[in-house]
Design brief:
The protein is built from twelve helices and three strands. With 268 residues, it is mainly alpha-helical. It folds into three domains: 63 residues, Orthogonal Bundle (Arc Repressor Mutant, subunit A); 95 residues, Homeodomain-like (Arc Repressor Mutant, subunit A, Orthogonal Bundle), CATH 1.10.10; 64 residues, no CATH class. α6 runs parallel beside α9. It is elongated and about 125 Å long.
Length: 268
Protein backbone atom coordinates (compact mmCIF):
# COMPACT_ATOMS: atom_id res chain seq x y z
CA UNK A 1 0.00 0.00 0.00
CA UNK A 2 1.38 3.39 -0.90
CA UNK A 3 1.65 5.85 1.99
CA UNK A 4 1.25 9.60 1.79
CA UNK A 5 4.97 10.27 1.60
CA UNK A 6 5.57 8.08 -1.45
CA UNK A 7 2.29 8.79 -3.29
CA UNK A 8 2.70 10.92 -6.40
CA UNK A 9 1.92 14.52 -5.56
CA UNK A 10 0.36 16.79 -8.18
CA UNK A 11 2.18 19.88 -9.30
CA UNK A 12 0.65 22.96 -7.74
CA UNK A 13 1.86 25.73 -10.01
CA UNK A 14 5.54 24.81 -9.55
CA UNK A 15 7.86 24.95 -12.51
CA UNK A 16 8.97 21.43 -13.32
CA UNK A 17 12.38 20.59 -14.68
CA UNK A 18 13.11 18.56 -17.78
CA UNK A 19 12.57 14.81 -17.53
CA UNK A 20 14.72 12.47 -19.62
CA UNK A 21 13.27 9.42 -21.31
CA UNK A 22 14.10 6.03 -19.84
CA UNK A 23 12.72 2.53 -20.27
CA UNK A 24 12.02 2.36 -16.55
CA UNK A 25 9.93 5.55 -16.65
CA UNK A 26 8.16 4.35 -19.80
CA UNK A 27 7.18 1.08 -18.11
CA UNK A 28 5.95 3.00 -15.04
CA UNK A 29 3.74 5.23 -17.16
CA UNK A 30 2.36 2.23 -19.06
CA UNK A 31 1.60 0.42 -15.78
CA UNK A 32 -0.41 3.36 -14.49
CA UNK A 33 -2.29 3.61 -17.79
CA UNK A 34 -3.15 -0.10 -17.46
CA UNK A 35 -4.58 0.67 -13.99
CA UNK A 36 -7.05 3.11 -15.59
CA UNK A 37 -5.32 6.47 -15.15
CA UNK A 38 -5.24 9.00 -17.95
CA UNK A 39 -2.00 10.35 -19.33
CA UNK A 40 -2.96 13.86 -18.21
CA UNK A 41 -3.45 12.80 -14.58
CA UNK A 42 -0.19 10.86 -14.69
CA UNK A 43 1.69 13.86 -16.06
CA UNK A 44 0.34 16.04 -13.24
CA UNK A 45 2.23 13.91 -10.73
CA UNK A 46 5.61 15.01 -9.41
CA UNK A 47 8.55 13.52 -11.23
CA UNK A 48 6.57 12.88 -14.37
CA UNK A 49 7.11 14.62 -17.71
CA UNK A 50 4.68 17.14 -19.20
CA UNK A 51 1.93 15.70 -21.39
CA UNK A 52 3.45 17.40 -24.42
CA UNK A 53 6.72 15.64 -23.65
CA UNK A 54 4.90 12.31 -23.47
CA UNK A 55 3.36 13.06 -26.85
CA UNK A 56 6.84 13.57 -28.29
CA UNK A 57 8.00 10.31 -26.73
CA UNK A 58 5.09 8.44 -28.31
CA UNK A 59 6.26 9.61 -31.73
CA UNK A 60 10.00 9.09 -31.23
CA UNK A 61 9.95 5.77 -29.36
CA UNK A 62 7.81 3.08 -31.05
CA UNK A 63 8.39 0.69 -28.16
CA UNK A 64 6.90 3.19 -25.71
CA UNK A 65 3.91 3.78 -28.01
CA UNK A 66 3.35 0.00 -28.18
CA UNK A 67 3.47 -0.28 -24.36
CA UNK A 68 0.95 2.55 -23.91
CA UNK A 69 -1.42 1.13 -26.53
CA UNK A 70 -1.26 -2.32 -24.91
CA UNK A 71 -1.88 -0.71 -21.50
CA UNK A 72 -4.95 1.10 -22.82
CA UNK A 73 -6.28 -2.14 -24.24
CA UNK A 74 -5.73 -3.89 -20.91
CA UNK A 75 -7.48 -1.07 -19.05
CA UNK A 76 -10.73 -1.72 -20.94
CA UNK A 77 -13.12 0.50 -22.91
CA UNK A 78 -14.39 2.51 -19.94
CA UNK A 79 -10.91 3.43 -18.77
CA UNK A 80 -9.93 4.25 -22.36
CA UNK A 81 -12.92 6.59 -22.70
CA UNK A 82 -11.92 8.31 -19.46
CA UNK A 83 -8.37 8.72 -20.74
CA UNK A 84 -9.56 10.26 -23.97
CA UNK A 85 -11.91 12.73 -22.27
CA UNK A 86 -9.75 13.55 -19.20
CA UNK A 87 -12.40 16.06 -18.14
CA UNK A 88 -12.27 17.32 -14.56
CA UNK A 89 -15.03 19.65 -13.40
CA UNK A 90 -12.90 21.21 -10.65
CA UNK A 91 -10.08 21.93 -13.09
CA UNK A 92 -12.53 23.30 -15.64
CA UNK A 93 -14.06 25.64 -13.04
CA UNK A 94 -10.60 26.86 -12.07
CA UNK A 95 -9.71 27.55 -15.72
CA UNK A 96 -12.89 29.58 -16.21
CA UNK A 97 -12.38 31.47 -12.94
CA UNK A 98 -8.85 32.47 -13.92
CA UNK A 99 -10.09 33.57 -17.35
CA UNK A 100 -12.68 35.88 -15.79
CA UNK A 101 -10.03 37.25 -13.41
CA UNK A 102 -8.10 38.54 -16.41
CA UNK A 103 -5.64 35.78 -17.34
CA UNK A 104 -5.39 34.67 -20.93
CA UNK A 105 -6.20 31.08 -21.77
CA UNK A 106 -2.70 30.64 -23.21
CA UNK A 107 -1.15 31.85 -19.98
CA UNK A 108 -3.36 29.56 -17.91
CA UNK A 109 -2.44 26.54 -20.02
CA UNK A 110 1.28 27.29 -19.51
CA UNK A 111 0.76 26.40 -15.86
CA UNK A 112 1.91 22.77 -15.38
CA UNK A 113 -1.02 22.19 -13.05
CA UNK A 114 -3.50 23.16 -15.75
CA UNK A 115 -4.53 21.23 -18.90
CA UNK A 116 -3.02 22.13 -22.24
CA UNK A 117 -4.66 24.53 -24.69
CA UNK A 118 -5.65 21.66 -26.99
CA UNK A 119 -7.29 19.83 -24.07
CA UNK A 120 -9.42 22.84 -23.13
CA UNK A 121 -10.37 23.32 -26.77
CA UNK A 122 -11.37 19.65 -26.98
CA UNK A 123 -13.53 20.08 -23.87
CA UNK A 124 -15.45 22.89 -25.57
CA UNK A 125 -16.30 20.55 -28.46
CA UNK A 126 -17.05 17.47 -26.33
CA UNK A 127 -18.96 18.79 -23.31
CA UNK A 128 -21.88 21.17 -24.07
CA UNK A 129 -22.17 22.42 -20.47
CA UNK A 130 -18.50 23.40 -20.40
CA UNK A 131 -18.85 25.04 -23.82
CA UNK A 132 -21.71 27.19 -22.47
CA UNK A 133 -19.69 28.15 -19.37
CA UNK A 134 -16.68 28.90 -21.59
CA UNK A 135 -18.73 31.35 -23.67
CA UNK A 136 -19.92 33.00 -20.45
CA UNK A 137 -16.30 33.31 -19.30
CA UNK A 138 -15.40 34.95 -22.60
CA UNK A 139 -18.24 37.38 -22.04
CA UNK A 140 -16.79 38.14 -18.61
CA UNK A 141 -13.38 38.71 -20.15
CA UNK A 142 -14.88 41.17 -22.61
CA UNK A 143 -16.61 43.09 -19.82
CA UNK A 144 -13.34 43.22 -17.92
CA UNK A 145 -11.44 44.50 -20.95
CA UNK A 146 -14.02 47.23 -21.49
CA UNK A 147 -13.76 48.28 -17.86
CA UNK A 148 -9.95 48.23 -17.86
CA UNK A 149 -9.95 50.28 -21.06
CA UNK A 150 -11.44 53.20 -19.12
CA UNK A 151 -8.58 53.07 -16.62
CA UNK A 152 -5.98 52.82 -19.37
CA UNK A 153 -7.46 55.79 -21.22
CA UNK A 154 -7.66 57.84 -18.02
CA UNK A 155 -3.97 57.25 -17.24
CA UNK A 156 -2.68 58.26 -20.68
CA UNK A 157 0.06 60.86 -20.91
CA UNK A 158 1.64 62.63 -23.85
CA UNK A 159 4.71 60.33 -24.01
CA UNK A 160 2.58 57.17 -23.69
CA UNK A 161 -0.20 58.24 -26.06
CA UNK A 162 0.95 56.06 -28.97
CA UNK A 163 1.53 52.96 -26.83
CA UNK A 164 -1.81 53.50 -25.12
CA UNK A 165 -3.58 53.74 -28.48
CA UNK A 166 -2.04 50.41 -29.54
CA UNK A 167 -3.07 48.82 -26.27
CA UNK A 168 -6.63 50.14 -26.45
CA UNK A 169 -6.95 48.95 -30.03
CA UNK A 170 -5.98 45.43 -29.03
CA UNK A 171 -8.32 45.50 -26.02
CA UNK A 172 -11.17 46.72 -28.21
CA UNK A 173 -10.50 43.99 -30.78
CA UNK A 174 -10.31 41.26 -28.12
CA UNK A 175 -13.57 42.42 -26.50
CA UNK A 176 -15.27 42.36 -29.90
CA UNK A 177 -14.04 38.82 -30.56
CA UNK A 178 -15.01 37.52 -27.10
CA UNK A 179 -18.47 39.16 -27.10
CA UNK A 180 -19.42 40.17 -30.64
CA UNK A 181 -23.07 40.81 -29.77
CA UNK A 182 -22.11 43.44 -27.22
CA UNK A 183 -18.75 44.85 -28.30
CA UNK A 184 -18.34 43.71 -31.89
CA UNK A 185 -17.92 46.23 -34.67
CA UNK A 186 -20.48 44.44 -36.79
CA UNK A 187 -23.14 43.24 -34.44
CA UNK A 188 -25.29 40.34 -35.59
CA UNK A 189 -28.87 41.35 -36.29
CA UNK A 190 -31.77 39.02 -35.89
CA UNK A 191 -33.69 38.48 -39.09
CA UNK A 192 -37.13 40.08 -39.20
CA UNK A 193 -40.03 37.72 -38.91
CA UNK A 194 -41.52 36.99 -42.33
CA UNK A 195 -44.70 38.88 -43.00
CA UNK A 196 -47.87 36.88 -43.07
CA UNK A 197 -49.08 36.36 -46.62
CA UNK A 198 -52.81 36.37 -47.32
CA UNK A 199 -54.08 34.54 -50.37
CA UNK A 200 -57.43 35.38 -51.96
CA UNK A 201 -59.30 32.88 -54.09
CA UNK A 202 -62.06 34.09 -56.42
CA UNK A 203 -64.87 31.79 -57.50
CA UNK A 204 -66.17 32.28 -61.03
CA UNK A 205 -69.86 31.57 -61.84
CA UNK A 206 -71.29 30.97 -65.28
CA UNK A 207 -74.52 29.64 -66.89
CA UNK A 208 -74.05 26.46 -68.85
CA UNK A 209 -76.59 25.37 -71.51
CA UNK A 210 -77.24 21.74 -72.37
CA UNK A 211 -76.57 21.23 -76.11
CA UNK A 212 -79.51 18.84 -76.62
CA UNK A 213 -82.29 19.85 -74.20
CA UNK A 214 -81.56 23.57 -73.99
CA UNK A 215 -81.73 23.42 -70.21
CA UNK A 216 -79.42 25.61 -68.18
CA UNK A 217 -77.56 25.27 -64.95
CA UNK A 218 -75.20 27.42 -62.86
CA UNK A 219 -71.63 26.17 -62.42
CA UNK A 220 -68.65 27.66 -60.53
CA UNK A 221 -64.90 27.34 -60.96
CA UNK A 222 -62.06 27.74 -58.43
CA UNK A 223 -58.31 27.98 -59.15
CA UNK A 224 -56.18 24.94 -58.35
CA UNK A 225 -53.56 25.89 -55.67
CA UNK A 226 -50.79 23.97 -57.42
CA UNK A 227 -51.41 24.65 -61.11
CA UNK A 228 -53.40 27.91 -60.70
CA UNK A 229 -55.79 26.66 -63.41
CA UNK A 230 -59.59 26.90 -63.07
CA UNK A 231 -61.21 23.68 -61.86
CA UNK A 232 -64.94 22.89 -61.71
CA UNK A 233 -66.05 23.46 -58.15
CA UNK A 234 -69.88 23.24 -58.01
CA UNK A 235 -72.67 22.63 -60.52
CA UNK A 236 -76.38 23.16 -60.03
CA UNK A 237 -79.28 21.07 -61.43
CA UNK A 238 -80.45 21.36 -65.02
CA UNK A 239 -83.51 23.62 -65.35
CA UNK A 240 -85.53 25.01 -68.21
CA UNK A 241 -85.37 28.75 -68.80
CA UNK A 242 -88.44 30.09 -66.97
CA UNK A 243 -91.28 31.77 -68.94
CA UNK A 244 -92.93 34.76 -67.31
CA UNK A 245 -96.58 34.97 -68.54
CA UNK A 246 -97.35 38.12 -66.53
CA UNK A 247 -94.85 40.14 -68.54
CA UNK A 248 -95.71 42.04 -71.65
CA UNK A 249 -94.22 40.79 -74.93
CA UNK A 250 -91.63 43.56 -74.82
CA UNK A 251 -90.64 42.78 -71.26
CA UNK A 252 -90.57 39.07 -72.06
CA UNK A 253 -88.23 39.73 -74.98
CA UNK A 254 -86.04 41.93 -72.77
CA UNK A 255 -85.85 39.20 -70.17
CA UNK A 256 -84.94 36.58 -72.78
CA UNK A 257 -82.29 38.93 -74.16
CA UNK A 258 -80.84 39.30 -70.65
CA UNK A 259 -80.74 35.52 -70.29
CA UNK A 260 -79.01 35.23 -73.65
CA UNK A 261 -76.41 37.80 -72.68
CA UNK A 262 -75.82 36.01 -69.36
CA UNK A 263 -75.23 32.74 -71.16
CA UNK A 264 -72.93 34.41 -73.65
CA UNK A 265 -70.96 36.02 -70.83
CA UNK A 266 -70.67 32.70 -69.09
CA UNK A 267 -69.28 31.03 -72.21
CA UNK A 268 -66.66 33.76 -72.61
Amino acid sequence: MTDETTAPQPWRGRRRGPVAYSHRLARAIAARVADGESLISICESAGMPHENTVGVWLKRHPRFATLVEAARTAAGPRARAAQLSSFCQATADLVLERMIEGETLTGICRDPAMPSFSTVYRWTRTFPDFASDFRAARQGQAERLADEGLEVAAAVTAPSAHATAVRLTQMRWAAGVFAPRRFGRFRPVEADAPQEVTHYLFRHFRIEEHPETGECRVVSYMPDPETNQPVLHTQGPWRRVPYFPDLSPGEQASREADMTRMKAYGKD
